[in-house]
Every structure is written in C-alpha cells, then in structure tokens.
Amino acid sequence: MLAVDRVCIRYEQKQVIKDFSFQVADGEIVSIIGPNGSGKSTLLKSIARMHPYDKGQITLNNTNMKAMSSKEIAKKLCMLSQRNQAPNDITVENLVSYGRYPHKKWFERLNDDDMQIVHWALEKTHLSHYKDRPISALSGGESQRAWIAMALAQRPQILLLDEPTTYLDISHQHEVLQLVRELNQEMDMTVVMVLHDLNQAAAYSDKIVVIQEGCCKCIGNPKEVMTTCMIRDVYKMESEVEYVAWDQAPRIHLVSAVK
Q1: HSE of 218 in the Cβ direction (CA atoms, 13 Å)?
Q2: What region holds the ABC transporter domain (predicted)?
Q3: What pLDDT was estimated at residue 245?
Q4: CA distance linking residue 80 with residue 160, whole number of Å
Q5: If residue 212 lies in a helix (H) or strand (E), which one and from where to where?
Q6: What residues contact residue 4 under an 8 Å CB cut-off, 6+ apart?
Q7: DSSP class per residue in 70-104
Q8: Mean pLDDT confidence for 180-192
Q9: Cα 211 to Cα 219: distance, rounded to the nearest angstrom
Q10: What mean pLDDT, rounded, does the chain reach?
Q11: Strand order in 55-60's β-sheet?
Q12: pLDDT in tens, 53-94
C-alpha cells in the first residue's frame, strides 16, 4: 500500500534522513521509533507531503505521491501532529465536520450524507454525547479522540499519527492507543505512527521501524526488533526483555545507561 524507497531528506544543508526504505502493507499498524532527533517526525511529515524530500520515492497504491494532487492525497491519507490547534469555541461536531472538506468542491456545503459520516466518526470514537461541547472543555484524551474523529471523517486509507500519546497521562495514552487498535481491527485501517514509549510500540504494532541518526537500523515485528542489543545500540541503555505466555508482545524493562 505505502512504500518509502531510498528516501533522503534535508533540513537546509543537513541531511536528516539517509537512503531510507520501508513498506507498509494494507491493514498494518507500523510504529516508527528511535531517539530524539533521529528523524522520526521528519520522515512522517515527508510521507504526508508536509516536508519535501531530496531523493528517492514515496508511493501510495503504486502511484508516486509527487504526481498526486493534494486533494487526492487528502482522500486517502490523513496526518495528525503532536499538537493540533483549533479555535477554543469550536464544537466537537464542527471540528469533525472539517474532515469532509477534502471530498467537497470549493464552497460546496456539507449535505446529509456528509453529516451521517460525521456522526458515524463521532460514534466510532465514543464522542457522540460530546458533540455540542467546545473542544476547550475536553480532557486531553477526549480532545485527541476528537481529532482522530476528524481524521476518520475523511475516510482515509492510511492514518498517520505523530506521537499521539505525548502530553497525555497514562490512562489517556492507553485510551488513545486502544482506539487506534479498535479502528485498525474493525475497519482494517492502516496506521503509521511515531512513538517514544518502547512498550507501547511493542504492544500495539504489527511492525516496528527503528531509526538511528536518520538511517534505518532495523525493521520487523516486535519480537524481532525489541532486543537488548537493539536497545543498547540505539538508545544506549541496558535492558531486560521479558516474554509472558499470555501476552504476544515483549515487555521492555530499562535498567541503566550504558557505561
């Protein structure tokens, strides 16, 4: 579905992503992990066409994304950043309705079909009873769900999430990631997200892509990627990786910095 092929990305004169390649299959949840400053968010922004890349190619359904219009991409792909801003007085329903505009002509109004999709997105994100509340009145987890609902209203094939759990407490982090998994399982929605927490990446991902200094360190399922050697090499931390019979995902316990 989505292929990143030998992509190189620069900020001014500095190359931040170097000859990077990976693929995302239809219906997968893929997490991109790596230390701060390794290029995770930059790579995601380039996939969303929010930042240009110098070399290589990114294709969506075998079509070079550079050849696609912004409107065409918006119908297939949606990205949510770490922090999303909206006027304080905008209601949840109004925010979610913005997800329909990629499907409308200039100045064309939303019709009954559009509003049915908006209400469906609110229901999927468990926000129907909050639809008339202003965004400013929501908790962090509720607000993040509202933005995800807006993305759902676009009916994208791929959802890109840049650190969706940042600034949230533990319970809201769990709430948002559970919602992501629910959307993936019930709607076969493909998800690519940047995560900091190694245990969250292990628990919620089909595939993990590890970035180190702009290069692809390794790619694989959580059991293949989450090793003490990878964590030592990439994060400079000694760790213990635990497996329990009733849980598919490995559990990572950070022990100490590498001496």
Answers
A1: 13
A2: 2-238
A3: 67
A4: 6
A5: strand 207-212
A6: 20, 21, 22, 23, 43, 47, 56, 58
A7: HHHHHHHEEEE-SS----TT-BHHHHHHGGGGGGS
A8: 92
A9: 9
A10: 91
A11: 14-24, 2-11, 55-60, 63-64
A12: 999 999 999 999 999 988 889 888 999 887 777 787 899 999
Could you give all domains of the chain from N- to C-terminal order, each with its CATH number?
A: 2-257 (3.40.50.300)
The per-residue pLDDT for 231 is 96
Put simply, whether the predicted model's pTM sits higher than 0.85 gets the answer yes
Residue 182 near residue 20, CB atoms below 8 Å: no
Range of weakest confidence among 8-17, 98-107, 248-257: 98-107
Question: What 3-state class would DSSP assign to 169?
Answer: coil
172, 140 contact by CB (below 8 A): yes
**pLDDT 10s digits, 96-121:** 999 998 888 877 888 999 999 999 99
Q: Which residue has the tokens 């690519």?
A: 192
Contact 143, 135 (CB under 8 A): yes
Phi, psi values for residue 65, rounded to 5°: -65, -20
- Which helix (H) or strand (E) segment holds residue 185: the answer is helix 170-187
Maximal CA-CA distance, the chain: 63
